[in-house]
Write a structure and sequence with these properties.
The chain is α+β, with helices and mostly antiparallel strands. Helices cover 46% and strands 12% of the residues. It has one domain (3-131). It has helices at 3-11, 35-45, 47-60, 69-75, 86-96, 118-123, 126-129, and strands at residues 16-21, 65-67, 100-102, 106-110. The protein has a four-stranded mixed β-sheet.
Length: 136
């Protein structure tokens, strides 16, 4: 599956809807709109994808939101050429890492962080990986 092509297609539309992806398997995980999620996910997803996930999860907590792709890109300080720029790359990265699902007219974003694979945990800096409070 080519996540970048899907993201570019979604962001080439006049508008798209962002919805919450509620997954019962992840309900006990960190909320993706929490400060703790920013700390843990940034080394895994990168800064752009992490902040997009964080903000979209917060926006969808009160229901679906509709976005103009240019406004979407500008909101996150990403390239205004939404279909081919950094916005599409951030959305594609979220999908590639399992934090978003790209549809033809919608983007579903996780509301909670799923259990992280061991290889992602291993990539965290020692002070994050070894903190017992974050071991959950």
């Amino acid at each position: 599956m080519d996540h970048h092509q899907l993201a570019a297609s979604l962001l080439s539309r006049p508008s798209f809807e962002v919805i919450a992806w509620v997954d019962p398997v992840c309900d006990s995980g960190l909320p993706t709109d929490s400060d703790e999620a920013l700390v843990i996910l940034c080394p895994v997803l990168g800064p752009s994808a992490t902040i997009v996930l964080h903000r979209l999860a917060r926006y969808t907590s009160s229901g679906p939101t509709t976005w103009d792709p240019i406004v979407f890109a500008a909101t996150f300080g990403l390239s205004k050429n939404a279909p081919t720029g950094l916005a599409a790359k951030a959305v594609a990265r979220l999908a590639r890492f399992g934090f978003a699902n790209i549809g033809s007219t919608t983007l579903a974003v996780r509301t909670h962080v799923p259990p992280l694979p061991q290889r992602w945990l291993a990539a965290l800096p020692d002070y994050l990986r070894d903190d017992p409070a974050r071991a959950a």
